[in-house]
């Protein structure tokens, strides 16, 4: 065949409709990619046949959108050769599944492995049909192609709509990819489809969610690994859209409206920025990864180096940079809450920058520090390195007696915090105390009795914290746990009644108060709560009476209106309630 037969297209048989065929899933025709060497097997239900001549390597096969490289020889059934890439000594490249070749090629090649050579027998409906390809291919011709799949380049549709197509040039390291809060360092080059340079940057750093240059760049880097280099074909909706781009001078060229561009990106490195708190008010940017997987826990003793700064760069504290690192115990309020929380996420040797909102820093009051005054409501920033740490022992590391002793100590710490009105921290301390004795199957009888007393005490005290924090449902749960263990516990009945009153479960509140008074008739606190309950009941009864009274008045007015109109028919008036009722 003539030398210009280098793309075996099938005309209208392979035109693409409005949907982009590129996807992550391999669309292999029914019949699969399997088969033994020398055995002919039908692929799909349209008459395509495949005989493997040489087995390929591995299990992977190309998918729609991948750029494949093949050698081929095309013949008619009588053996007449009409084309061969071998004769030209040049492999043929095309993108699979886009209708660039006849349907038989698209369907057949996606069943092949790298290095595989197969003979495909392609019926006219999957080739050139009734028209043929004069003068070498007659109408309704069945064709045979001996195809060797040399390699392919993965092309991925990262936008899922064909708007950004990615081809990896150089594989990256590891498996991690940047996320929205992270800061990335990239090199990029942007060109038009004709090769004209649009923009080039040797190295630029930006936050992923904020983006750089055009919307596609932010989406692109989120798919990349460290050290990876890739080419992205970017449609106008992810580039410069209907407006295009004009750099206004310099060596960079204009991007016309509605123009597809090509961006080559290398992800040099990135700094992971994690949200330490769910409200995003404490952020940690890792400058240097730490060792291993272990991290400090509550109660751990840590050694750090840290420098605290204001937004303008003013240093207000510098600790641990002499011979001795700065040491503190986590969850003991020896540092601000933001540092406590952040250090628990760090590994030994990790270096990071912390951004801390005033809620987790120095709050709404001016604070005098080592080297400067921190104004009220100021964000603060810390350069911090975790030198080493000694974790507080976990439950499973303690003997039964040590568990009881540790539980008692944590409970006392909770009591101290409660007295200082640190209710949330006290609640957590009681929960921690409980964790050491909650499962007592290995305890002896005396230890079980001690653990029972601790459980009751911790749950009762935690219920008091939850009342202060207005978490009334949790108060009910904690008091119920106590009453399950000690049904005559007056404090549990009293606190559960308080929670029921706030939840407007007045009947349940009265039951608890009556039972508490049966057990301890002279208890002054319970009597006062009973008085409060009666007032609440009276208040709600008054509101109910007012509510229903308004309804009855409305109904009386309606009846009076109906009687005054005599026999005149009227549409039924819907009942309304006064908004002040």
Automatic annotation (TrEMBL):
> PROSITE patterns in the record, alphabetically?
FKBP_PPIASE (PS50059), TPR (PS50005)
Q: Does the keyword Manganese apply?
A: no
Gene3D superfamilies according to UniProt: 3.10.50.40, Tetratricopeptide repeat domain (1.25.40.10)
* Placement of TPR repeats on the sequence: 490-523
Q: Which GO terms describe its molecular function?
A: calmodulin binding; peptidyl-prolyl cis-trans isomerase activity
- Comp. bias regions, Acidic residues: 16-28
Pfam families the record matches: FKBP_C, TPR_8
Identify the EC number(s).
5.2.1.8
Task: Supply the name of the protein.
Answer: peptidylprolyl isomerase
UniProt lineage: Eukaryota, Viridiplantae, Streptophyta, Embryophyta, Tracheophyta
């Amino acid at each position: 065949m003539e030398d210009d037969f280098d793309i075996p297209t099938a005309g209208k048989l392979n035109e693409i409709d409005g949907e982009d065929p590129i996807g992550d899933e391999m669309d292999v025709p029914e019949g699969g990619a399997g088969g033994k060497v020398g055995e002919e097997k039908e692929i799909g239900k349209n008459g395509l046949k495949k005989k493997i001549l040489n087995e390929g390597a591995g299990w992977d096969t190309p998918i729609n959108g991948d750029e494949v490289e093949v050698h081929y020889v095309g013949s008619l059934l009588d053996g007449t050769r009409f084309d061969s890439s071998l004769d030209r000594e040049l492999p043929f490249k095309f993108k699979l599944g886009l209708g660039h070749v006849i349907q038989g090629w698209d369907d057949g090649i996606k069943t092949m492995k790298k290095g595989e050579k197969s003979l495909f027998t392609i019926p006219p409906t999957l080739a050139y049909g009734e028209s043929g390809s004069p003068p070498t291919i007659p109408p309704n011709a069945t064709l045979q192609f001996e195809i060797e799949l040399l390699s392919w380049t993965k092309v991925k549709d990262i936008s899922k709509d064909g708007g950004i197509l990615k081809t990896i040039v150089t594989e990256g390291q590891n498996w991690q990819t940047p996320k929205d809060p992270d800061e990335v360092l990239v090199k990029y080059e942007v060109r038009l489809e004709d090769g004209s340079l649009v923009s080039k940057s040797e190295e630029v750093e930006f936050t992923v969610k904020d983006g750089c240059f055009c919307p596609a760049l932010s989406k692109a880097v989120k798919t990349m690994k460290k050290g990876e280099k890739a080419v992205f074909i970017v449609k106008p909706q992810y580039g410069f859209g209907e407006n295009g781009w004009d750099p206004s001078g310099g060596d960079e060229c204009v991007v016309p409206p509605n123009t597809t561009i090509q961006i080559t990106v290398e992800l040099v490195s990135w700094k992971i920025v994690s949200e330490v708190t769910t409200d995003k008010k404490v952020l940690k940017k890792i400058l240097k990864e730490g060792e291993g997987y272990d991290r400090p826990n509550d109660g751990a003793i840590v050694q750090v180096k840290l420098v605290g700064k204001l937004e303008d760069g003013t240093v207000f504290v510098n600790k641990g940079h002499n011979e001795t690192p700065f040491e503190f115990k986590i969850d003991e309020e020896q540092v601000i809450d933001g540092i406590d929380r952040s250090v628990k996420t760090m590994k030994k040797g990790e270096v990071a920058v912390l951004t801390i909102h005033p809620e987790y820093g120095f709050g709404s009051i001016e604070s005098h520090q080592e080297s400067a005054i921190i104004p009220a409501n100021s964000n603060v920033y810390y350069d911090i390195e975790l030198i080493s740490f000694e974790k507080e022992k976990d439950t499973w590391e303690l003997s039964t007696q040590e568990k009881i002793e540790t539980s008692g100590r944590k409970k006392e710490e909770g009591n101290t915090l409660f007295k200082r009105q640190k209710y949330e921290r006290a609640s957590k301390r009681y929960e921690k105390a409980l964790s050491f004795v909650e499962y007592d199957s290995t305890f002896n009888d005396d230890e079980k009795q001690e653990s029972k007393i601790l459980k009751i005490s911790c749950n009762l005290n935690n219920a008091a914290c939850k009342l202060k924090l207005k978490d009334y449902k949790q108060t009910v749960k904690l008091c119920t746990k106590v009453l399950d263990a000690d049904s005559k516990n007056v404090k549990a009945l009293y606190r559960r009644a308080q929670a029921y009153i706030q939840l407007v479960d007045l009947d349940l509140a009265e039951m608890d108060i009556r039972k508490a008074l049966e057990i301890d008739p002279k208890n002054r606190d319970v009597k006062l709560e009973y008085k409060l309950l009666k007032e609440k009941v009276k208040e709600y009864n008054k509101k109910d009476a007012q509510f229903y009274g308004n309804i009855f008045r409305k109904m009386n007015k309606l009846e009076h209106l109906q009687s005054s109109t005599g026999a005149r028919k009227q549409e039924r008036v819907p009942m309304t309630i006064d908004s002040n009722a």
